[in-house]
Amino acid sequence: MSVYYFSNIDTLQNTIIDPHSHYSEAAEIDRDEVIHFNRLYAKVGKITKKHGVVWRVGQIIISILTAFAICPLFSASCRQFIKNSWKKGTSGQEEICLYVLKTLAQDLILKGCSAFLDKQWEEAFRQINLAVILEPGKALTTRGFFYTVKNRFDEALNDYNKALERNHDSVTTLLCRGELYKELDRYDDALEDFTEALKIEPTSASVLRSRGDLFCAQGLLEEAMRDYDESLYMDYNLVTLLNRVDLYRKLGRNEEALEDLSGFLAIEPGSASALRYRGNLYRQLGRLEEALEDLNGSLAVKPRSASDLHYRGDVYRQLGRLEEALEDLNSSLAIKPGSAAVLGCRENVYRQLGRLE
């Protein structure tokens, strides 16, 4: 194990970034972030002894203090860790520096995820590329997910494979790679990953849901239902519930689908997604007044939902409230222009009004 110390974050960056790497452009560090990173002085390398013990100890203290913003030093467990490591001498000092680096890597991963959610793609990859260098085990899976979302599937698969080489028992990485295989229609490979993940963590609700989705895609509906049931038993959540609702509808079991949605709304009555699902199901079953009530509730939460406006517009059309239907359908098209389903519904309204355009 070795540790180098640098005068500022720019030196750290220049040392760990290969200028010929295709990642280097995305990994440039903005000058303003020098303050955020608190001039981190530590990097995995070698402790130089030529400056003497006092210099080494001083540098280690600076490493810890300057990383304070990302390092929870005042927790009891962290204080004990610092105390125990300090007693070990040089090897313990290396542990402290590695702890600082791992904490920085986690901070970079979180910042990358936040930027990704905000669709700041360049910033997200810049943060995660640095994290991969500092702590590849955790960061490779995250970057693989970023690549998957951006449809860069070869790069995503490469990252997942590298992550699993480091930790072949990572349920998260197996789940992500399985999802990618499913996206690529490599169903056998996906099933192998999901099954392996469930051997490691049999109660993983996320893996059970993903395997249920895979079974649905393969037309194995009973197997899918078993996985959804078990997943919901482990973790009752709307995403899995809606998947099971879709499966009930596919099987023609509409009352059970309604029962699922009503059960969830009894717990979370303001859920726009559950109200939309149930309202649309009521609409398709011809239960128009109930559909209208649910869709009004959903639009009260999300007034600019193009799909809700479409569904409510169609309900108004079927109820003969044609001007209100036209208003909703026009609003839906203003949000999502060119929707064939909405345009077709609006054409029916114009026809009923006797003024086709």
TrEMBL record:
Q: Which UniProt keywords apply?
A: Membrane, Repeat, TPR repeat, Transmembrane, Transmembrane helix
Q: Which Pfam family is an annotated match for this chain, by its short name?
A: TPR_1
Transmembrane ranges?
Answer: 53-75
User: Could you tell me the superkingdom of the organism this chain comes from?
Assistant: Bacteria
Q: In which ranges do the TPR repeats occur? A: 137-170, 171-204, 272-305, 306-339
Which InterPro entries does the record cross-reference, listed alphabetically?
A: TPR-like_helical_dom_sf (IPR011990), TPR_rpt (IPR019734), Ycf3 (IPR050498)
According to UniProt, the name of this protein is: Putative membrane protein
Provenance organism: Candidatus Protochlamydia naegleriophila
